[in-house]
Structures are given as structure tokens and as C-alpha cells.
Amino acid sequence: MALGDNGDAVIFKMKQKSKKLPDFLQSVNLKYVKLGYHYLITHLFTLFVIPIFILLTAEAMRTNPTDVYDLWHHHLRYNFVSVVISGVFIVMGLTIYIMSWPRPVYLVDYACYRPPSRFKISAHQFLERSQNHYGELDESLMEFQRKIVKQSGLGDETYFPEGFHNTSSTPTYTMAKAREETEQVMFGALDILFSTTSVKPKDIGILVVNCSLFNPTPSLSAMIVNKYKLRSNIKSFNLGGMGCSAGVISVDLAKDLLQVQRNTYAIVVSTENITHGAYSGSKKSMMLSNCLFRVGGAAMLLSNKSKDKRLAKYKLVHVVRTHRGSDDKAFKCVYQDQDEAGIVGVSLSRDIMATAGSALKINITTLGPLVLPVSEQLLFLATLVIKKLFNPKVKPYIPDFKLAFEHFCIHAGGRGVIDEMEKNLDLLPIHVEASRSTLHRFGNTSSSSIWYELAYIEAKGRMRKNDRVWQIALGSGFKCNSAVWVALKNVKPSTNKYSPWRDCIDKYPVQTFVKQM
């Protein structure tokens, strides 16, 4: 999902206030606050039962044997049947209640793919080679690309697939090349994951793969099953067409499957295919993806095994998903279609920033009651009720999400949306540093970008036990999805040869966007 970069297209150079990401925290809707509190209330019984159980246990421990004997001798011995029946019901009730608890889902580890150095491409090389690979572009189209690239926030060490580095005039965007790119990314990330976790492929019970544009037959998930000889009863899923927010959707699906399949592992693979998604036409709104998207992918190992708690890096706390597809404008703001010449591409509409703001508003308002401290919730809710019932001119209190999270992984779709998220949530430069650095170093890697950002935070040595992480991504449909994790241990700066930030972490944050901050 590419959002908010400047250029001479109306999508990226917007002077009108309405074309910027809306100030969604100033126009929240009460019904979405109610939805967040509904999530909270569903667990209210647990919140009440646990303290009562603790109090009863403490009281029982204070009771001496004489009191127990007197209770039995004077009251219970003549009602033995009633005692047994009551005991059976109590045990059954506790068993059912405990069995209904959601099983914790742990992120044992994850791996981000870093392509070989020969696939690196600078801004100058991209512009030079795009003439050969994206058709005959006139000077006005080349100038448009120059503006997009200049303002995109991408650096000179992002990666393009091997076919783009072919200096011949014949494009190499074939099905075979697209399969080759996907295999390199998926298998590269999975090889690292299996190596660092020592988990065997045969131990995997659930597999979820997401790739928006490239969905061949057999599926990408079938390619992984074939490559690693996964077991025949594996629960495998292949998600397509769900955009840059599909990584969180995949995690959510794996989480739900781990609730019903006991004592197993789930693997989630998030990627996108640049070869298959290349646009060789001349429609500006479809040319944007060529300028912003780059090769990347990530593989995550999830577990519901209790023994993995001491080994895992993170525990999944919340997933909140927002889908605006019922609105026609939102549905079509990121749309794959053919241009006037019949060439297929993905177009971004004029309404994309307003749509993104609406989806963000709903998602954040729903998430707030689940994560914000009580003090922030009360202030926010009080001002919102006053605004709705008494004085419409009262501005809602803007909750401080920095009190709910230590780390923010905002999808690196474009510099503009990162800027607006920083402004609207009143974040500090360090909170969006991972997003800006990922965009600069790796470009927009679609649904996997939030994992490169998490790897950045770890590589900087900032992750501590009990730190809370907010991953938020936007995607076609239109969707906004959030995942909240809590660190189970201090994560040491990654020094192994598999880190995507190896040998370059000390270069970031780069001075150019430090000044912009």
C-alpha cells in the first residue's frame, strides 16, 4: 500500500487540506469506541472471577485443620450426597471455564529476507532502466517518475528482482521469472527461520501465505509444502488480493487456527511479487507502484505450546481489523484494472488519503479501550460524551498512545503516511524511525515491511522485556489492521549473519530524514 508521497500527480502533490490524511482523532465516532469497549467487556467475567478466586484461595490457606474438621463434623457429614454433587459441578464448571480460555500465541522467531547485493538498485539506475523495462516513456512521464522517486523516501540500496537488472531492451517479466523471484524470497526467509529456531518442517501444523498480486497454480503455499516436504495433514492457506495489510490478517488467521489445533506450530509467510506486478503502461496513477515497491518478504514462526514461552520473543496480545469495503469509494481507491491500452496495473484514486484516514480512525478508536491506561480512556470518553451530548464545539481529548506502546511499526508504504501518523498521534521522531529507515533501506516491501521495522528496533538494542509493540498496516479493500505484541524477554541486538540490518544498522537513521524530523 503506497500512500502520501509527493509528485505532480494529484495523489502525491496535494495542496488542498482535504487531500491530506484527515485528523482522525478529532472526528472519532462513538460507535467505534463502543466496539472497543465491547471487546473489553467480553473478558469482563474473567477480570472479576480471577480476583475472587485469589481471595478464596488466600482465605482457604488461612483456615486451620480444626475449622475444617468442625465444618465437616457439624454440617457436611449429613449432606454427603449434596457435597459430592456440588463438588462435581464445581470441578466441571472450572474445567469448562479453563478450557475456554484463549490459548496464548507466541512468536518464537521470525526472519526477513535480504536479497543478494547484485539486486541492489539506486534511484539513478531505476530511472535509467525503466525506459527499457516499462515501455517507451516520454519526457513528461520520466519527469513524473523523477519527482516521485525524489520525494519517496527510498534510498539507493533497495532491491529489484533479477529480471530488472537485465540491460537488454527485452523485458523479462515472465511467469517463470515471477516464480523464481517468489521462490528466492519465500525459501530464503524460511531457510533462515528453520536454521535459527531448529524447528523441523515436519513439526509445522499450520501454514498461511499471503501475496496480493501473484497467485499461480499450484499455490504459493503448495510450493512451500513441496519444497520442505511438509506433512500431508497440514492446514495450509493462501491469501491473495488483500494488499499491504495482509500480513496482520495472516497472523490473525494463524492465531484462530492455533486456538483449535493443540500443541503445534504455525508458519506465516508475507511477501509480494515485483516481477508479476510490474506495470509497463503510461497511466501515472498506475506507475506509482513501479517507483515505490521493492523485493522483500518475511516468515514468522508462531506456537501455542506452553514450553515455548521461555524460548519465544513475543506474545500476541490483540489483533484489531477494520474493513471499509462496504463503501464504494474505499473499495475502489486501490484497484487493479487495465488502462486504455489494455495493460494491467494497480491504480491509486484521488480518495486514497481520505479513505486511509477513515480506516485509521475506526481502527485506532476500536483499539484504544484495549490498550490505553484507564486514565487516558476516561479522559477520552468524557470529552467525547460531552461533545456528542452537550457541546459539539468541544474537541475530543487526544489519547497519548505513547503510554500504551513503547514501539511503533507503521507500514512503510510511503513517506507521507508516516509523516501524518507521526503528526496525528503526536509521536516522537524515534517512534517512526524504524518505519522511515525501513522505507529508505528496503523500500515498500508490502505486507512484510512491519517485520523489517521490528528487526530494526531489535538491531538497535531497544527491545526490553514487557515492552509493547504496535504493528499497523493499510491495504486495498480498504483495510486497516493492527497487531499488538508484548516482548517476553530482552532482545539482544542482532549480530548474526541473517539479520536484514547486518552491516548497515549503524548508518541509520540517515541524516537526510533526521533533518526532516
Give your account of this protein's structure.
This protein is of the alpha+beta class and 517 residues long. The chain has helices spanning 30-41, 44-62, 65-76, 80-99, 123-133, 139-151, 175-197, 220-228, 246-260, 274-277, 284-292, 328-332, 352-371, 374-389, 415-424, 433-442, 449-459, 511-516, and strands at 106-112, 120-121, 158-159, 204-210, 235-239, 265-271, 297-303, 314-323, 334-338, 344-348, 407-410, 468-475, 479-487. The protein contains 18 helices and 13 strands. It starts with 29 loop residues before the first helix and ends with a helix. Residues 3-19 have low confidence and may be disordered.
Please tally the helical runs, counting DSSP H or I stretches of 4 or more residues. Answer: 18
The percentage helix is 40-55%
Mean pLDDT over the residues: 85
Spatial arrangement of strands, main beta sheet = 5-4-6-7-1-8-13-12-11
Give me the count of strands.
Answer: 13
Fraction in beta strands: 15-25%
* Largest sheet data: 9 strands, mixed
Q: Which geometry do the CA atoms define?
A: globular
Structural class: alpha+beta
Distance between the termini: 23 Å
Computed Rg = 26 Å
> Which regions are unreliable across 5 or more consecutive residues at pLDDT < 50?
3-19
Pathway: Lipid metabolism; fatty acid biosynthesis
Organism: Papaver atlanticum
InterPro entries: 3-ktacl-CoA_syn, ACP_syn_III_C, FAE1_typ3_polyketide_synth, Thiolase-like
Catalytic activity: a very-long-chain acyl-CoA + malonyl-CoA + H(+) = a very-long-chain 3-oxoacyl-CoA + CO2 + CoA
